[in-house]
Amino acid sequence: MYATLPISDGEYMANGPCKNITQLLDANTTDLELTLRFEPGLSLDRYVDSDMKSTLSPSDCATIWAQTSSALAHLHSTCALIHDDVKPENIIWDPLSRNSVIIDLGAALNRKLLPDGFFNPSGTPPYAPPEYLRRRKGVEGDVWALGVTMLFAFAHLPLPDGKWILPEVFEKEEVRREMGEWLDEVEGWRRMLAGEKEGLLSEMLEADPVKRIGSKELARRLKPEGQF
To answer: How far apart are CA 212 and CA 171, in angstroms?
Structure first.
């Protein structure tokens, strides 16, 4: 069983194998289709209770955290890609095999092809990093987005539901204020988690992208899998 998507949705997915990143099996340029490996399990946003809080166990979360960090390090270092849409909906978890997979590279950006200072207003509102407001985009934003995802996975907060339209933060003061209030909430969690068992999350949620932990260092510090 395979998932088939429009060709534009996975332009860069063949750039090196990684078991925690969805794999391109075939490309049909005539019909503009890609055939992707079927990923068993459910996306993280499906593991919730009636209050939209995560029902994943701490052990599940630790494994997901380690695996997805390693996947991001592979995307960033080996494939020279920015995923640009890391979120619970784009991470599949299979509790039977205890394997997680990052999916949907439709928004992925090839760093080798981007001009200096490149910015586009893509992304999902609650996972956009602070530097988005300064029209900056890079691999650091993927780390931030995974940090917010793990705040949800560890049940610190419900599944984020920010519905503001990202490009409007540059046009409407009320939209910019809404995003700012959300970033303030994330900063509150960052401060609370510093020095705790999940304190590495605070380094992922550092507001300054220059000071934010990189995916390669993050993956190194989260090994062996499932341990903090």
So the answer is: 28
Q: DSSP alpha helices (H): ranges in the chain?
A: 58-73, 139-153, 173-193, 200-204, 215-221
Q: What is the pLDDT of residues 46-84, one digit of tens each?
A: 999 999 999 999 999 999 999 999 999 999 999 999 999
Q: Specify the fold of 41-221.
A: Transferase(Phosphotransferase); domain 1 (1.10.510)
Residue reference for tokens 């046009």: 171
Residue 44: closest CA among 67, 72, 12: 67
Tokens of 166: 């990202």
Which helix or strand (DSSP H or E) is residue 38 part of?
none
> Does the pTM exceed 0.85?
yes
The residue type of 157 is: L
Alpha-carbon distance of 178 to 111, in angstroms, equals 30
Look-up of token digits 């003061």: 173
Phi, psi of 109 (to 5 degrees): -120, 130
